Amino acid sequence: MRAHRIIERIQREQRMLFGVKKPKMVIAVTPTQVRTFQKLHLSSVMHSLMLVPYDVVWIVVEAGRVTNETASIIAKSGLRTIHVGFNHRMTISWSDRHKLEAMMRLHALRIVRKERLDGIVIFADDSNMHRCSFCWNSCSFRWCG
């Protein structure tokens, strides 16, 4: 809910300062990979995004390639989604994994630029989610754990 309040405040201030009539779209970026608990994690992100009272575009960047497993999960959201593969497989090493996830986020930002999407970009990771409260952390919102 904290992230929703932050987005709401940004929207309100944009309308006041710049005379914005229509709120900006929310562009949520989620790097992911096929794994045992992927459905649980992606479902948590999906349900949070479905509650956002603004237009939402969900960009899901999947390590390796686009898979039917991931596509079937995100299709249930009813959100506008962009599901793309990333040509590198997820690594086992935590430090390498964080670097790969950062590259996947950059890949999503290139898609935002290419598609000329105009909105507020948030990074909604599908891992490290434990609680139903958001934290604002280094330009991303993650579940507090």
TrEMBL record:
GO MF annotation: an example: xylosyltransferase activity
Q: Which Pfam families match?
A: Glyco_transf_43
Principal cellular location given in the protein's record: Golgi
- A GO cellular-component term linked to this record: Golgi membrane
* Record's subcellular location: Golgi apparatus membrane
Membrane-related topology note: Single-pass type II membrane protein
Query: Is the Transmembrane keyword given for this protein?
Result: yes
Which of UniProt's keywords are assigned here? Cell wall biogenesis/degradation, Glycoprotein, Golgi apparatus, Membrane, Signal-anchor, Transferase, Transmembrane, Transmembrane helix
Keyword flag Glycoprotein: yes
Functionally, this protein is described as follows: Involved in the synthesis of glucuronoxylan hemicellulose in secondary cell walls.
Stated family: Belongs to the glycosyltransferase 43 family.
Identification of the protein by name: Glycosyltransferases
